UniProtKB/TrEMBL annotation:
One of its GO terms (molecular function) is methylcrotonoyl-CoA carboxylase activity. Residues 582-659 form the Lipoyl-binding domain. Gene3D superfamilies: 2.40.50.100, 3.30.700.40, ATP-grasp fold, B domain. The keyword Nucleotide-binding applies. This is 3-methylcrotonyl-CoA carboxylase alpha subunit. Keywords: ATP-binding, Biotin, Ligase, Nucleotide-binding. Residues 1-447 form the Biotin carboxylation domain. It comes from the Bacteria. It holds the Pfam family CPSase_L_D2. The keyword Oxidoreductase does not apply.
Length: 672
């Protein structure tokens, strides 16, 4: 076994590998970019080496610098994690040439499966079922459009070298094919350095089921059952579970055999995943093979009781597989939810910023949290915005689902927008609860997942006001006690003492009246409601409060004007409005014509001076390795673009000069 390994990755997976290595007594070396100098994986490792600037192409994708770090620190092997260089055959070959073990498959296996087109040809020879489509080398737009017409719409365009949903589009109509193809090719070139795509029949109501395989250097190969990854948005997985609901032993065996055949066809060694598209009738087709450890591997670990990273290390060290196929068994059910810094209500746009408050659920035998960040760390625009993976396990799916709901309700994140509430709504949908799964579940459940805004509960206003009063009292107590200006008791000449706090949440505004009571609490007036409130505010924002006859455990976390109120598994961004100050909205920038995050302009889609309809695509930004299209918010005239293709733009930058039709008409009338 190795005595020291280098982890050529960052974030959650780097921390995950360090945990297993430490348990096995293996020293670890972290590599990091300048932006990650104080990252959690750097803090956890035994050693750390800076390998370049923030951009991944100047650091985590620099195989030469990573190998230099391995040589300098005496690391015997390199674990690539997932993403970055994990499926780069040139890097695997460079490791072998340098005498450093690559903890992954041979370069030949990576190369065979790295091109989706070549992989499908290889799988056809191995007898693995394939989805109908065009997997050849010709890439002329007209030729690919003809193949799409022959296949029959809807079709799916996929980056041949891709993964993670990048460079992938569903196309329903011939007239949309050219634009979708161009976008896929741009995204594929940017993410993988290869614009090559393939076109396949889009299977209606498909499930995405993958098989975990493992091979050793002695010819052994097993499958560790399946994972259902059907719940996706933008072709990226959101929830994963194991075993797949409704899976029969016969179908599991058939898919397992096909996956092992696929692995053996390329001489596979280490952890790999064979992904299948499954029709409603149970027919399955090979989609791709990921020649690395998957993000969702923890659900397999939870149902088997195994440590797949340990298996990777042992196999890479030349040991045989720890178990035979007959010794493997499924125990219970596990579900994983990916916690991201993103705004589901704004098209899942990534959110950046500092994690001012991060309180995950308590871990135990049934709840696991894999994360690469801690409170105070920053989510930057340079990398994937994952905060954590939340994994739960119990003896069956209903119990595991109950665990997941409870754990999501305990999550508290402030400083960035997260998808926690979206996940709560998602796992509460009847479709997910009843395992009515397919890759379009999120689109099917739009009404439940994106409900109309509801009135803010009185208790939320009360908690926000109570926290403000508690905080001001603490500040007054820490100040000059002899000064009358340090007393915040709402004193008024010839009137009963009263404070008035102007608050706003979204578009709802309210002024809360507060009068001190004899017991040291407050009488709060919220609209027509009057209730007695008291509580104890902790330094981390936790608030143990009594509201009328109800006792609640909540949290109110301050970030500039915003007070993030956490109650009953939900969060509300309440703003304290300064009464003598204009604005005070405390929102993120609004409107569709500002940059939603830092990024680069990669395409201008409309002509300045023309009148466009609401929803017309105006420009495309690239950020966090994904494309984001900004559209016209209303009918109006596109006057000018403020940036050119290739320009870097900052968060909130005005990108377009745009005059809505009503405003333009008013201007014309005034001029007349």
């Amino acid at each position: 076994m190795f005595t020291k390994i280098l982890i050529a990755n960052r974030g959650e997976i780097a921390c995950r590998v360090i945990r297993t290595a430490r348990r096995l007594g293996i020293a670890t070396v972290a590599v990091h970019s300048e932006a990650d100098a104080n990252a959690r994986h750097v803090r956890l490792a035994d050693e750390a080496v800076c390998i370049g600037a923030a951009a991944a192409r100047e650091s985590y994708l620099r195989g030469d610098r990573i190998l230099e770090a391995a040589r300098a620190t005496g690391a015997q092997a390199i674990h690539p994690g997932y993403g970055f260089l994990s499926e780069n055959e040139d890097f695997a070959e460079a490791c072998a040439a340098a005498g450093v073990v690559f903890i992954g498959p041979p370069a030949g296996a990576i190369r065979a499966m790295g091109s989706k087109s070549a992989a499908k040809a290889l799988m056809a020879e191995a007898g693995v079922p394939l989805t109908p489509g065009y997997h050849g080398d010709r890439q002329e737009p007209d030729f690919l459009a003809e193949r799409a017409a022959e296949i029959g719409y809807p079709v799916l365009i996929k980056a041949s070298a891709g993964g993670g949903g990048k460079g992938m589009r569903r196309v329903d109509r011939p007239e949309d094919f050219a634009a979708a193809l161009a976008s896929c090719q741009r995204e594929a070139l940017n993410a993988f350095g290869d614009p090559h795509v393939l076109v396949e029949k889009y299977v209606l109501r498909p499930r995405h089921i993958e098989i975990q395989v493992f091979g050793d250097t002695l010819g052994g190969c097993v499958f560790l059952f399946e994972r259902d990854c059907s719940v996706q948005r933008r072709h990226q997985k959101v929830l994963e579970e194991a075993p797949a609901p409704g899976m029969t032993p016969e179908r599991r065996a058939a898919m397992g055999r096909a996956a092992v055949d696929a692995a053996r066809a390329v001489g596979y060694v280490g952890a790999g995943t064979v992904e299948f598209i499954v029709q409603p009738d149970g027919a399955f087709y090979f989609m791709e093979m990921n020649t690395r450890l998957q993000v969702e591997h923890p659900v397999t670990e939870m149902i088997t009781g195994l440590d797949l990273v340990e298996w990777q290390l042992r196999v890479a060290a030349g040991e045989p597989l720890p178990l035979t196929q007959e010794a493997l068994a499924i125990d219970g059910h596990a579900i994983e939810a990916r916690i991201y810094a993103e705004d589901a209500d704004k098209g899942f746009l990534p959110s950046t910023g500092r994690l001012l408050h991060l309180a995950p659920p308590l871990e135990g035998p049934h709840v696991r949290v894999d994360t690469g960040v801690e409170q105070g760390d920053e989510i930057t625009p340079h990398y994937d915005p994952m905060i954590a993976k939340l994994i739960v396990h119990d003896r069956d799916r209903p119990r595991a689902l109950a665990r997941l709901r409870a754990a999501l309700a305990q999550y508290r994140i402030a400083g960035v927008t997260s998808n926690v509430e979206f996940l709560q709504r998602l796992v509460a949908t009847p479709a997910f609860a009843q395992a009515d799964l397919d890759t379009a579940l999120i689109e099917r459940e739009q009404a439940l997942l994106f409900p109309a805004p509801q009135p803010v509960p009185d208790e939320v206003w009360a908690l926000a006001a109570l926290a403000e009063l508690q905080r001001e009292a603490a500040e007054a107590a820490a100040g000059d006690a002899a000064s009358p200006w340090s007393v915040a008791d709402g004193w008024r000449l010839n009137l009963a003492p009263e404070r008035r706090l102007a608050l706003r949440c979204g578009e709802q505004a309210l002024t809360v009246g507060a009068q001190p009571d004899a017991a040291g609490g407050w009488w709060l007036s919220i609209g027509d409601t009057r209730l007695q409130a008291s509580g104890r505010l902790g330094p981390d924002g936790t608030l143990a409060a009594r509201l009328g006859e109800r006792r609640v455990q909540a949290a109110v976390v301050v970030s500039a004007e915003r007070r993030q109120v956490f109650l009953d598994g939900r969060t509300w961004p309440v703003v304290r409005v300064a009464r003598l100050q204009a604005g005070g909205r405390g929102d993120e920038h609004g409107g569709g014509l500002k940059a939603p995050m830092p990024g680069k302009v990669i395409a201008l889609l409309a002509t300045p001076g023309t009148v466009v309809e609401a929803g017309t695509p105006l420009l495309v930004m690239e950020a966090m390795k994904m494309e984001h299209t900004l559209t016209a918010p209303a009918r109006g005239r596109l006057q000018a673009f403020r940036f050119a293709v290739g320009d870097q733009v900052s968060d909130g930058a005005e990108l377009v000069d745009f005059a809505a039709e009503a405003a333009e008409a008013a201007g014309t009338g005034a001029a007349a």
